[in-house]
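Sat 14:20. Reprocessing the chain from the morning session after the first attempt stalled halfway. Input below, unchanged.
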Amino acid sequence: MPEFLCEPITENNAWTVADLKGRESWTRNLTSAMIDEVMRAVKAVGDTPFRKITTENIPLPSMAEFLNELHDDLDNGLAFAVLAGWPVDEFDYRDNVAAYCAISAHIGDIVVQNYEGQSVVDVIDEDVAYSHLSRGYRSNKRLPFHTDGANLTGLLCLGGSTSGGGSLLVSATTVFNTILTEKPEYLDVLERGFFHHRRRQHDEGENPLSAAPIPVFTFHDGYLHCCYNRNPIDWVEKEGMTLSDKEVEILDYFDAIVARPDLQAKLQIQKGDMQFFNNFVVLHSRTEYQDDADHRRHLVRLWLEDPRSKRRGESLLDLYVPGSSRFHAVE
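Finished this time. Tokens:
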């Protein structure tokens, strides 16, 4: 690790719960004028595919300052933010998602999220077991703290569950600082990283594991980049690879840090919320949830690559969607 990074990081994204002031401190509210502008623009582009919605075909000029401030929240602030007040009940699914894509396109470029080629993913309970053969968003089970595959993640809430389904966020920067203070000898292993199971997100006959270890912590241009998901790391054992006792000890310690209540921001996503977070410096989790006939949890997920971000390191897109990241895109 470079000497200049042997001191704790003091960026705004190095927070604990005590530093936060509740929902109002991370929420920006959409006005009726903003909603009207977005919907006029959405209607103007008609049936344009969601992936093709860009700042060029939906410019949103009167929201430029508002959306630039949102971008700043994600790149230079807490690294997460919520846009509240989208009236989902006034529109059908197509218009809601198109509007969400229009707003998100001003934060980053919408990219494909999985081997199946989806750029828009519905996060609902499909009664699919969460295992090394599937992705976690298809179940209602608790998801451990992890980072997603692209620079930024967006979640639009179209409906809530009967119970559970809360979002929890932890500052990866604070986790790094904690390890630097408590167990600095672990950082070499975390910077070397771990092989990941690809969970069938690859062509038949390809290696089911990542080609190389993926660092939990790395630095690009002096900025911290975190990439962590314990389950795909553990699932390499399904393919005959064994983690050492020391590696398990370090991973258990990492998980014990993110389990500390004083580090966990609780974001109970509400209908009409658009939640965004920076995967390079924020880990997220979801509690288990239950639906019933009248309440079905339904989020719509986007992955965004941010060409304006100061964090320019590689993401997991090349593990699950080769050719989709800004580093390896196919022209």
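The chain is about 25% helix and 20% strand.
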